Amino acid sequence: MAELKLTQVRAQMREMTDAELHNEIAAQRASLYDFRRRNAMKQLDNTMAIRNARRQIARSMTLLRERELAVQKEAK
């Protein structure tokens, strides 16, 4: 998803189901772990990948939280 513009990424994420978002978070956390490991061994060329992965995780978690709050608001 890194090649797409931010608005395109957000639009794609909004179309995902909750299960797909959870899978996206898990995949991004695994890649973040790999980026950090490779950075510690001085093998990572693009250190911005760490920052981008963290932000992608945050976007996914924010979207999940928005959906949770919307469900709670409807229930009241």
Description:
The chain has one domain: Helix Hairpins. It contains 3 helices and no strands. The model has no long low-confidence stretch (mean pLDDT 93). Helix content is 80%, strand content 0%. The longest helix has 28 residues. Helix 2 packs antiparallel against helix 3.
Map the helices and strands:
Layout: H1 6-15, H2 18-40, H3 48-75
Helix pairs in contact: 2-3
Biggest sheet architecture: none
- Which term fits the overall shape? elongated
CATH architecture: Orthogonal Bundle
- Amount of helix: over 70%
The average pLDDT value, as a whole number, equals 93
How many helices does DSSP assign? Answer: 3
First-to-last CA distance? 36 Å
Order of helices and strands: HHH
Class, according to the CATH hierarchy?
Mainly Alpha
Number of domains: 1
- Pick out the low-confidence regions: none
Strand content bin: under 5%
What structural class results from the helix and strand content?
A: mainly alpha
- The whole-angstrom Rg is 15 Å
